[in-house]
Amino acid sequence: MTDWRKMSAGDIGRAIGQGTIDPVVLTEEMLDAIADHPHTGRIYARLTETRARAEAKAAASRAKIGLRRSLLDGVPISWKDLFDT
Q1: How far apart are CA 35 and CA 77, in angstroms?
Q2: Mean pLDDT (whole number) for 6-33
Q3: Between residues 15 and 43, the one the model is more confident about
């Protein structure tokens, strides 16, 4: 798998479209990175792991049949808790 940590969201999206990054694998790697971070509890107010996995699986299915919703379909995102008002 490509080292996504040094890639822009657009580059990750293009790699998903080319089939070199799998959204499911990417999501699992990102969830693992979040879990392994020593300050996870202070960084995120809430993790929606089940939803992230479901969204990644759906994005991977769309990518396989060439029906991606956009360049960013399958690219995981996170909302910082500063949006949780």
Answers
A1: 15
A2: 96
A3: 15
For residues 65-69, give the mean pLDDT.
96
d(CA 46, CA 24): 20
Domain boundaries, the chain: 25-76
Query: Could you tell me the pTM of the whole model?
Result: 0.86
Q: And the tokens for 31?
A: 């969830």
Single-letter residue type at 11: D
What is the mean pLDDT of the segment spanning 39-54? 89
From residue 54, how far is each of 24, 43, 49, 58 by CA, in Å?
9, 23, 9, 6
The angle formed by the CA atoms of residues 42, 46 and 48, to the nearest 5 degrees, is: 140
Distance CA 37, CA 73 (A): 26
Q: What is the DSSP string of 29-56?
A: HHHHHHHHSTTHHHH-S---HHHHHHHH
Token representation of residue 32: 């693992």
